[in-house]
Amino acid sequence: MTNVILLQDVIPYRQEELGEGRFAKIYRLQDFHLPEVNFSLAYKLYKKAHPPVSSLALRSIPAVRERLAESKRLTFDELTAWPLRVVVDASNPDIARGIIMRQIPKSYFFELSMISGRSKTKLRDLGFAIQSEADCINMGTPFMTTMQRLTMLESLANVLSLLHRPEIGIIYGDLSLKNAAFRVSKSGFAEIILIDCDAVLRAGTSSAFGHQPHSPGFVPPEAAKSLHDVNSRSRTSMAANQAIGNWHRQTVATDTYKFGLIVLRVMDPGRHASQNFDPSVALEKLPIELSKMLTASLESTPADRPQMDEWYRGLAQVCSVQPISRVAAATRSSESLENSRRNPIPGWKKVRPGEWVRTTRHEP
Question: Phi first, then psi: what are they for 114, rounded to 5°?
Fold first, then answer.
């Protein structure tokens, strides 16, 4: 399967703009289909002001999905807006003009109530999961229960653990509250969708966009130390150049550290939560095993942090024994994914957010 598509073949299907960021605009695609998926698609167009992006560097990202077993691809499709094609112009195929990806379902958006009395459609990113109950009421977004917060974190741990699998070897990198959105289903689960997945990278490399930054409030200790080394040495020295490289380095351990900060802040919501580094309240709300993992995730020594698979298994175990999960499991598989998969997937049953089991034959 080719991972490249011509811009000229995409433009006729481009509809209204769905959103805009610093480096890209996202457009809805009408009646545009890819043979391997059956959900609505969007075109992420890179702005011309953005430094050119190598199409060759991007092509390896859609290929990640193709290497997954079928049940894991279903998880990927549900929990990420993963790049499916790299868009290039026929006149300059070496430069990526954007990507084709899953259109984020409407259930991840809400009408934000503003002081003026008007409302504005907003993506419900994880920043809204750390707001106080009063602020959530004022803004018109749900204030989640403790169990909903845990199921949301479970789905995030699920997709990060998939990325970190040895056969995949992908680091998300600039993980923060802005890079995932959440929704709460009628059956009680909360789950995420991971966005900006075109900027992921392999261990020891840069992303297709170059070195990834660390978002403010999510700088891991090893990067902070490198920044100190840069500031304390001549920028022309070899040691300073090495320190600059260490500042940009993203690893599975930095992903885990940032996930730990998300756990800390989601479990201790309220004013100033976005800059909270004190885990004491979150630790009291978590079962003992998860408390241990949170403490270890925030360790300054990267090797002492747990793997994301440990987080996923720990959260899945906690959520699976709760009454809300047992009740929801009976109804969740029949609940349609709004603006996503419009028809049941033959031979598969969804039992939890991001978890699918085969109902007809065993997967090879």
Answer: -105, 165
Q: Which residue has the tokens 């609505």?
A: 40
In this structure, how many other beta carbons lie within 10 angstroms of the beta carbon of residue 329?
16
Helix 146-164 to helix 308-320 angle (10° resolution) is 150
Q: Which of 173, 170, 172 is nearest to 202 (CA)?
A: 170
Residue type, 331: T
Residues in the chain, overall count: 364
Question: What value, to the nearest 5°, has the Cα angle with vertex 100 and ends 58 and 41?
Answer: 155
Helix and strand element counts for the chain (H, E) = 11, 14
Tokens of residue 157, six digits = 């741990």
List the one residue out of 200, 321, 315 whose CA is nearest residue 260. 315
Note the pTM of the prediction, 2 decimals: 0.85
Determine the Cα–Cα distance for residues 200 and 81; give it in Å rounded to an integer.
12
Cα–Cα distance between 262 and 283 in angstroms, integer? Answer: 13
For residue 119, give both structure tokens: 């409302």
Rounded CA gap, 242 and 158, in Å?
Answer: 33
List 20's β-bridge partners, or say none. 25
User: pLDDT of 179-217, one tens digit each?
Assistant: 999 999 887 889 999 999 999 998 877 888 887 788 999
Question: Up-side HSE of residue 356: CA atoms within 13 Å toward CB?
Answer: 23
339 DSSP assignment = T
**What are the structure tokens assigned to 58, written together?**
């991007």
